[in-house]
Amino acid sequence: MTDVLSGLEAGFAVALLPLNLALVMGGCFVGTLIGALPGIGPINGVAILLPIAYGLGLPPESALILLAGIYYGAEYGGRISSILLNVPGDAGAVMTTLDGNPMAKRGEAGRALSLSAVASFCGGTAAVILMTLFGPLLASFAVKFNPSNYVALMVFAFASLASLVGKNPIKTLLGAVIGLMLATIGIDANTGVARYDFGVPDLLAGIDFLVVVIGLFGMAELIHLVEQQVTGKFTILPIGKSFVSMADLMATKWTILRSSLIGFFIGVLPGTGASVASAVAYGTEKRLASDGDTFGTGNPKGLAAPEAANNAAAGGAMVPMLTLGIPGSGTTAILLGALLLFNVTPGPMMFQTRPEIAWGLIASMYIGNVALLVINLPLVGLFARMLTIPQRYLIPLIAVLAFIGVYSVVGNPFDLFMIIGLGIFGWVLRKLHFSLAPIILGFVLGGLFEDNLRRALSISGGDWSILVADANSLVLYTLALLVVAVPLVLSRRKRMALDTEA
Amino acid sequence: MKMLKAAAALLLSTTLAGQVLAADIDHPECIAPAKPGGGFDLTCRVAQQGLMDTFGKPLQVTFMPGGIGAVAISQFNTTRTDDPNAIVAFSSGSLLNMATGKYGEWTEKDVRFLATAGADFGAAVVQGDSPFQSLDALMEAIKADPQAVVVGAGGSVGSQDWMKAALLFKSVGQDPRKMRYVAFDGGGDAIAGLMGGSIQLYMGDVGEMVAHMGTNVMRVLAVMSSDRLGPPFADIPTTKELGYPDAEWTILRGYYMGKNVSDEAYNAWVAAFEKAYADPAFAALQKDKGLMPLNMAGDELVASVKTRVEKMRAIAMEAGLIK
């Protein structure tokens, strides 16, 4: 414990140097803007700026602090276009659209933006505190989380999502199946066999997650907006001067706390990140909330849950990187590359050999979270005014940004056609009253589920009992069962109580 | 003034001489058939910096992602078969894709292999406290029961990583198809799997073990090269010296050109690379990029690629990956 405190003290001494303070603030601000742009998320934000940070000739701890600031900033910024435009700014912000955008449509854009900023702050800060206290312990647990445990985690995620969104369960399931089907395209990760590529070489590597999100969500939303404009159904959104109230915070405090914990633990696991974390947190809160049936119509809890979770997951993903030298997410893989670029070897030795980097980075996360809250709250009004831009300028602007975003990540013109195709497909699905979130979740969870199921079976040599062979899995299966059964039992009891009264 | 003109003329003539050496190569370009930031990007950067002096300007690096390199090879077999300016980065992974038909109709016969950028080597890695403290102990166990050890790596069945494990299995007469092989999503996840005990043997590359050398968390049993490597890997025995000479796996990085490129242009490129290989700065460049020296250009590389692809095809065929 004294180690932790003295390390943290030394870390703050590094992070509070004027240069580093300026870098974390600047990184957070740029990151927020990058995250707010549809398509450009934390991964490409950090990847694009890595050569610049290197070129500035900064000492390694400063460069890393700058990049990490961009990383958290982008996680914060992702919520902005989700709420205002119904276009997720990055992958972790998909769930934020479900309740954030309806709130904005009610004229509560300011309230939604400020509440989500506070939720992000709490999630991010909780993650850093947990990391400081239990980092090495958690990391050694995280690597013990084996493929069959991941299978159980995915079962739990599916269970908590089963009646997640949309009024029609059949359409929710169909959506998830479409997502699963999209996830099977490309070279099979296990056997190397090309699946459903129809002889198109551009499909061999599969469809990038970003392409699916931007296509199905972004493009479909834009087509929808244009359609409303053309048919004259378009109504200008009211912009109230709303802001988060104390009552909102009191109503969502347990949601934020639980979601922060869920997000952090899922973030620590290598291989699962912000998108899985926010989905599980959203599903859990929907089940637990007394007003769960209003999730999806602009419930502040439905907004706070995914935002707290995805920021906590971003912090959690740093744990295996710092303590073991294993990247827990795509973005931390790039940060890891940055460390190696500076001749710093990440892993357990880093806390001994280069404490100024390890602890300086951790201290900068505390500062970064405060900085982001301070930057984001006053800007809420400004961001909300984005909605007053006339649609004829806004729609093409978003379209251009989305295209640039996708092209800057994958650099293949074929994917630009893909997002148009997926956009039209998404628009048709919307016409048929499908909710698009289950498709995205089916895509993410399905891919992870399949890969890990097959890994588990390769380990056991085809013996299915490996799936229930250890305690982690059994706990998760029990939770999955509870999540499905408890609401059913409760509603039956309620009905029986009503019957006996009558 | 006259002096200046004469100096300018002299300068011009030397530049022209440089141009003659480079045949009709007026805007040299290296195509990385992937997104920025990966191994192909790195391969092109080696050419960009290494050939700077020869061409008098840096090569332009162009990215052409799509289909794990299939998009680039198909372009160089349709519209750019004789482009004297462009070289395309390849790796042993690309060779394996050619050998197993992942690039459709295009195979190793459809391009002209030019030169190498450098190499990395396969490595057999176990946990620090693994019961297998030597390669021999591990091979004994595999020989006794091919299912005794769970092997994992970052690639699918049939990938380079799987091939490395298959070669070890074949060295002790075991059928690679009986191997318990776990395909992870990249080396990082596979290392996590090794540390967590999900797998007992990780087939990685020696270059990525730099961060883990000297810690007791992981142990490199052997490097799959024929000669010992330089520091920090000098203490690791090779598969060859341990008595498994067939279990050699070089991760080759290099460049190819279109198959109808003129001999003049091709030879100019070969000469450019051979000139660079002779320069000590090139070795420093390779080290800087995390590559180990393995310099081959022209016919030597063509012959080497031919035997490699044949070897890969034989293993893939034997394992039932291709018919």
In brief:
The complex is a heterodimer of chains A (about 500) and B (about 325). Chain A is an all-alpha fold.
Keyphrases for this structure?
heterodimer; A: about 500 residues; mainly alpha; 20 helices; B: about 325 residues; alpha/beta; D-Maltodextrin-Binding Protein, domain 2; nine-stranded mixed sheet; about 40% helix; disordered N terminus
Describe the structure in your own words:
The complex is a heterodimer of chains A (502) and B (323). Chain A is mostly helical and 502 residues long. Chain A has one domain. Chain A is 75% helix and 1% strand. Chain A has a two-stranded antiparallel ribbon with strand order 1-2. Chain B folds into two domains: 165 residues, Bordetella uptake gene, domain 1 (D-Maltodextrin-Binding Protein, domain 2); 103 residues, Periplasmic binding protein-like II (D-Maltodextrin-Binding Protein, domain 2, 3-Layer(aba) Sandwich). In chain B, 39% of the residues lie in helices and 18% in strands. Chain B contains eleven helices and nine strands. In chain B, strands 1, 2, 3, 4, 5, 6, 7, 8 and 9 form a nine-stranded mixed β-sheet that branches. In chain B, helix 7 links the parallel strand 5 and strand 6. The N terminus of chain B is likely disordered.
Report the structural category of chain B. alpha/beta
Report the order of strands and helices of chain A: HHHHHHHHEEHHHHHHHHHHHH
- Count of DSSP helices of chain A? 20
- What is the end-to-end distance of chain B? 74 Å
The assigned CATH architecture of the largest domain in chain B is 3-Layer(aba) Sandwich
Main β-sheet of chain B: number of strands, strand sense, barrel status?
9 strands, mixed
Query: If you consult CATH, what is the topology of the largest domain in chain B?
Result: D-Maltodextrin-Binding Protein, domain 2
- CATH class of the largest domain in chain B, anyone? Alpha Beta
Q: Please tell me how large the radius of gyration of chain A is.
A: 22 Å
Shape of chain A: globular
